[in-house]
Structures are given as C-alpha cells and as structure tokens.
Amino acid sequence: MSTPFRNGVLAGAVAGAALAGLAFLILGRSPGSADVRPAPPASAPTARESQLEEENRKLSCRIEALEKKAPTAPPVAPKEDAPKAEAPAPADVGAIFGKLVEAGLAGFRGPKFGETLEAVKKQGPAAVEFLAGVLRRSESATERFYAAALLEGAGDASAIPGLAAALKNDKDDLVRRMASHAIALLGTPAAEAPLRDAATGDADWGVRVNSAYGLAKLKNDDGLRIVQEAYESPKTPPEYRLAVLGGLADVAAPMTAPLFRKILSDTQDVSYLLASIGALQKMKDAEALPALQQLAANSASDIVKQAASKAIDAIRK
Hints:
This protein has helices spanning 3-6, 47-69, 93-102, 111-123, 125-137, 141-154, 160-169, 173-186, 192-201, 205-217, 221-232, 238-251, 257-266, 270-282, 289-298, 302-316. It has 317 residues and is mostly helical. Among the domains are: 92-239, Leucine-rich Repeat Variant; 252-317, Alpha Horseshoe (Leucine-rich Repeat Variant), CATH 1.25.10. α9 packs antiparallel against α10. The longest helix has 23 residues, at 47-69.
C-alpha cells in the first residue's frame, strides 16, 4: 500500500491544543498494620527447669569437646539455584496511552505512538478491549481518535464491532475518519456492512472516501467507483488527491489501468509516477510497457527510472 494512504492522510489535519491524558492506574491496597501486644513477663524458673538447664549446658560442653577431636571436613558451600531471569512486567497500556494523549494530535505516528502501539501488541486482547472501551466511553475526541488509530495498528479483527459503532455514532468527523480507515485496513468480511453504510451515508467527505477505499479492497466495484470519482473530481481537496490515488494504487484493480497509464504520460511529478508505476506493476499491465520503457530511458529521476525498470521486469515474467 502507498505510504500516504497507509498512514491515514484522510484522517485529516493534525491540530489542536494538548489535552490532559487519562492515567489508568491500578492502586494496590497497603496491608494493614498488625496489632502489637507486649509479651507476658517471664516467670521465675522452677527447680526442675534449673536442673534441666544445667544438664543441657554440660551436654553442650561435651559435644563441643568431641567436635574439637574429630577431623574436620572442608565446609561445603550450599548449592544456590541459578538466578532466574525475571520476565518483564507487561506494559501498562493505560498509562502509556495517557502519556500519548497528553501530546495531543501532534504525536500521531510519532515515537510515542510507536511505543504505545508496541505495548498494545504485547498485551494483545486485553489492550484491544481497553481501547475499545475508550472508543465507546471517552468524552475526549483526542482519546477516541488515538484509540481507533491504535486498534488499526494492532491489526486485531475483533476490534471491528467497536470501530463500527464509532463509525456510525461518533459525533467527531476526525474520529469517524480514523475509525473508517482502521476498518478498511483490517479488511475482513465483517467490515463490509459498516463500510458500505458510511461510504454512501456519512456526512463527511473523508469518511466516505476512506470507507469506499475499504470496500474497494474487498473487491466491491461500488467502492472502487467512489474512490476513482473522488480522485478525478475537481472538488477533491488538492492536499488529499495523492492520498486518494495511493488508495487506488493499493487496490490495483485492472479497471483502473487506463487512469494509471494516462498519468505516466501526463505528469513528471515523482510521487504520482511512482504510485502509478507500482499499481501497473501490481496488476501486470502489459499495455503499460511502452510508457514504462520511455520512463526507464528518459525520466529525469533516477528513482523513477529504477521503478520503471523493475516494473518492466515484473510484467514480463
């Protein structure tokens, strides 16, 4: 998949002040103080106890004398068990998530996001459940956005019901864009129904395109048509046009081959050329060979030349 579309460009502009993060800490209860009672006073020893004490003292002296006469063996050090490596404590996803949210949306796809995603993957289902809960219940749109983004990165299809609920009901456009993008990338059959509803019924353009992209990945012609129309429409925001093309290139449906062949001839923009070359290579479009050969020989970009040559070899195999 193209990097722009994989990274959720259609999630929207990153902006806004930092929001306070939630710190989901489990506080352990300290053990209560034990009652301390004074020991009872010792009673005076009886005559019998004094006699036993004297006999014990004499016996101890006799044993000590015998031990001095016996040969002494070198002391044997007690065997110690090999130290066991401690398993690292599982990351507290709640705390790490809270720190991520503190950075605001400026932290999206940054190092802290990567650290949080790694913790989510290590904890597995428990972390997915935690994020699904954030998506359902949090009053912070930033938290809900990050929850959807992390569920996308975790790649666990069990998150689709929670994401679908957010896609249908969340009031924030940016959260719904992220939820639709996450469902599109998870791409299981369970994704089709919520994506179909959003692709035609959501009020936000970005949500509709993300959802249509997911349908196109599921080989749904209606979804593919919506994405291609979004690319070709003059109403599409210029900053999103390349991302939409990246979605089409990722799907690489044969019916879009004429569009990509035309781009090879019409532009010298490296990003558009690379997306188109990748799509034509993926679909092994033999009709693109003349244009690819032209680029391999004459492009001003060495990167484009190399990509075109690689595509030619792949198509000819």
